[in-house]
Design a protein that fits this description.
Structural class: alpha+beta
Largest sheet: 3 strands, antiparallel
Mean pLDDT: 78
Number of domains: 1
Number of helices: 2
Distance between the termini: 91 Å
Shape: elongated
CATH class: Mainly Beta
Low-confidence stretches: none
Order of helices and strands: EEEHH
Strand order of the largest sheet: 1-2-3
Radius of gyration: 32 Å
CATH architecture: Roll
Strand content: 15-25%
Length: 108
């Protein structure tokens, strides 16, 4: 009783081409426990098909996770706004205007 999530891997059981193993968090006893699962098939082909399907689902979960992250980022960016601040005219003119004013007062 567990989900296949991104990052999970399945591998052949040592010494038997018809079986494979993987780690997952099990909730069968209504308590989360990290478990090692093993399954044995009637044929090598069935085992290979299971392993390929398992990996495809794990990869698709990774892609979905990335899409959720991208969507959350896009939503956050949409909420951002840029406000234009209006400053005093003297501040807008900057240091050059202040220098000109000092120069004019020295000339007088």
């Amino acid at each position: 009783n567990h989900l296949i999530i991104a990052g999970m891997t399945v591998q052949e059981h040592a010494g038997n081409d018809k079986s494979c193993v993987w780690h997952a968090t099990d909730f069968a006893d209504e308590e989360l426990k990290d478990e090692l699962f093993c399954i044995r098939f009637a044929s090598v082909e069935n085992c290979k098909t299971f392993m390929e399907s398992f990996q495809e689902v794990a990869e698709s979960q990774k892609t979905q996770e990335e899409n959720r992250d991208a969507s959350a980022t896009a939503e956050a960016l949409e909420k951002l706004s840029v406000e234009e601040k209006k400053e005093d005219k003297a501040t807008e003119e900057g240091p050059a205007a202040a220098t000109e004013a000092k120069t004019e007062s020295k000339e007088e």
